[in-house]
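Lab notes, practical 5.
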Amino acid sequence: AILVQTAAAASAPPISWIQPALLPRAMEVTMLEANAHDAERIPSGFDGSPVVAVILPSPKYVELIASQDARSFTYHHLQHPQYSMLDPFAFDADEFVEMALAYCREHRVNAVMAFDCFPTLLSSIIREALQLPGPSFRSVFLCCNKYYMRRELTPAVPIGVLPASPSSFPAVLKVSDTQFYVGTRLCLAAADWAGKCAEIKQGLPTGRVEKRQQFYYKWACHFGWAGTYGWTAPSDITLVHIEPLFANVGEYQCEVVVHADGSYLMADTGDIEHGPKQVITIFKTPGTFTITPVLREWLAGVVERLVQLGYKTAAMDVEFVRLQGAGEAYQLIEVNSRYSYMGNYIHFGIAAQAEVGLGFDAKNKPKEVRNLLNRTRLALGAPHLTMPSRDAVGISKLAAMVYTDRKGSLETIFDKEALAAMLADWTLDAFAPTKLYVRGDVTEADLREYNGWAKIGVLLLTMEDDLEAINSKLDGVMRRLFFGSERGFLPVVVIDEDGPGATGLNPAALQVAEDDERASPAAASKCCCIL
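Output from the prediction step:
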């Protein structure tokens, strides 16, 4: 194994390394030793600093955690050079889990955690095998594999599997083990179906699907639930499915933190806006939707079913839509087995090429890294200590997608100098590029992926929660980024679907009522709006 060391600034805390000879094949480990001992952060029962394994973190997260001035935990970052969130099927998940499991036993870790969806699934296997706190493998599997999520949580929704075609359009193709719509294709009409299927199959060459099926079958048998879904062989496991596109008035997010006793807190994490042809244009926190008794009860039903299946001491992000129609009804879109990205003070770091505004970096350096303290405590079986931005009600977090419908060299379409200027003057927090941006040109395949639009990247901003000001700023930013301000880009706008007036969003808006038997008094006292 080769351990990759990144040069650190002289003022940065020292990083310890595990000797390559002691590492399993192909796994890289960076160890960040504790440099403080904060009794309020460390759960009771630990005399020293707990040892926490972090599964497949991005290099950016390792860098950010290493920069912390007061770290009360020792982190072992278990990385692998072949893993990419954008292509998870190219990664040998079973080999890595076996290596990581052996490493965690050897180093007697107290907890195992991860930042993203698929690494969280791998973490769940390691934790359950070691009998450490955290959600069960089965409950996290349902979050990663939307086909079995539908069977467990929304059995009334009609779903199909390839090679069958949808009975009606529009329809959605979804691939297991992916996030950020990497494995999702929206098919608006029957004429597009063959092309969308071909795109999905390109990312699943012969051998990869079979290997991932073997991985799931092995561990489902190990933990005793393979028969629950009728699996008698790896080939029985579905990794790609078809589901309807739900006619809706809006899409939204809710963040849920589940404690060891099954009690939980819920908080709004905002709106998911769509543009033409259902292209997602922006994530905005907090949301504009109205909290109603019906919504609260519906969300509770989703969460409690996952808790019954073992989802505990972890956060989840529930995405849902309010259906069109005269009555009030909701439909589940997916459950992400992690904190929402919109709940982060520092919510970037996925792409190594991410560009960060100078002002943003200076202002936010002392802040927590992607709910690191909360994740760590939950992985140790302890309650979280904070809810992000609890004292910043009225502040909005924005993630705006940048699209173009033009083809050719990006230099003739997108103004990189304008982007650099807006990062320098604090207009933007950060910019996270796509492969297209790094490559430098827009192809026909890029345009097909989003039904006529190609995604260049994501802009991250922090503003006061003023809808008119937000939309005005977003419009100005997009016009500055493109040569020819009246064409070539997809406008982004936040819409309050249920109109002006009170939303019901307050620091305890989605909290289970204090007199409800599901909520513990200790949990109720800490609930707040996630920003």
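Observations recorded by the TA: The chain is about 30% helix and 20% strand. The first helix runs from residue 59 to 66.
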